[in-house]
Each structure stands twice: as structure tokens, then as C-alpha cells.
Write a structure and sequence with these properties.
The chain is α+β, with helices and mostly antiparallel strands and 143 residues long. Helix content is 25%, strand content 27%. The protein contains three helices and seven strands; from the N terminus they run ββαββββαβα. The protein has helices at residues 44-58, 111-122, 134-142; strands at residues 32-36, 40-43, 63-66, 72-76, 89-97, 102-107, 129-133. Helix 1 packs antiparallel against helix 2 (111-122).
């Protein structure tokens, strides 16, 4: 499971996923990618499930890049606990994903295989996504 080796603070404040992403809007490594159409939190379990779904469908054919990392700790208090007595214990690690962020990239496979692999991965994630190609991201840069 993905999680940071060490953090400055054990229990950080909640980060906002509103607005558009500042970086990582274009495909950097692969030919095809999965772009977030909305903001949200993606947990480490969801990232791992998406990675497994993609690699199993592509078998040994393609290469996968994961461009998000769960670096925000989410906390939760136990059930039936009174309020107060501090912040709850760390429950899971999540990645903050904003609209327009490229989350996964794929290369060395045909477009049909890449499209289906990324579709399977998108069903594992908690945000709406869109399939993008290398040509699509280059056209947007020229405008």
C-alpha cells in the first residue's frame, strides 16, 4: 500500500480539492492517460486496485505510470465516542486530486487495450475520469 515514509505532522489539516490543477495537465511519459474530470480524494487502496486492474488486463504488454501519491492522512474517531478529546487516529492515506490532473499513464500498447485498461481502472476510483491521448494534449498546448 502506498504511504509516505515520514511526514512533518502526524495529523494534517484537510486539504482542498476545489478548482483546477496547477501542474500535471499533460501526458509526460505515456501515450494514453486517465484525467480527472472533478476533484476529490483518492485513497491508497483505490490507487492500488486501479493499478492491479490495469496491469492484469494488459498482461505483460504495457508500461504504467502512477502520477498521484497518497500523502494526506485522513483521521476518524471510533464509533459511539463523545466529541472532544482531540483529533482521531489516522484511518487511511489519500491523494488530493483536482480537476484536470493526469492520474495514470500507459504506453507500449494499442489504443483499444489502453482505453479498456484505463476504463477498468476508472471504475475503481472515486472521481469521474476521462481518457486522453498524447495528440489531444499537444493540440491544447498550441491554442
Amino acid at each position: 500500500m502506498l504511504m509516505p515514509k515520514r511526514t512533518k505532522y502526524r495529523k494534517p489539516h484537510r486539504l482542498s480539492y476545489e478548482g483546477k490543477t496547477k501542474g500535471n495537465k499533460e501526458l509526460a511519459f505515456g501515450e494514453y492517460g486517465l484525467m480527472a474530470k472533478e476533484g476529490g480524494y483518492v485513497s491508497a487502496k483505490q490507487i492500488e486496485a486501479a493499478r492491479i486492474a490495469m496491469t492484469r488486463y494488459m498482461k505483460r504488454g504495457g508500461k504504467v505510470w502512477i502520477n498521484i501519491f497518497p500523502q494526506l492522512a485522513r483521521t476518524q474517531k471510533p464509533l459511539e465516542t463523545r466529541q472532544g478529546t482531540g483529533k482521531g487516529d489516522v484511518k487511511e492515506w489519500v491523494a488530493v486530486v483536482k480537476e484536470g490532473r493526469i492520474m495514470f499513464e500507459v504506453a507500449n500498447v494499442s489504443e483499444e487495450i489502453a482505453r479498456e485498461a484505463l476504463r477498468l481502472a476508472s471504475h475503481k476510483l472515486s472521481v469521474k475520469t476521462k481518457f486522453v491521448k498524447k495528440e489531444d494534449s499537444e493540440v491544447k498546448n498550441e491554442d
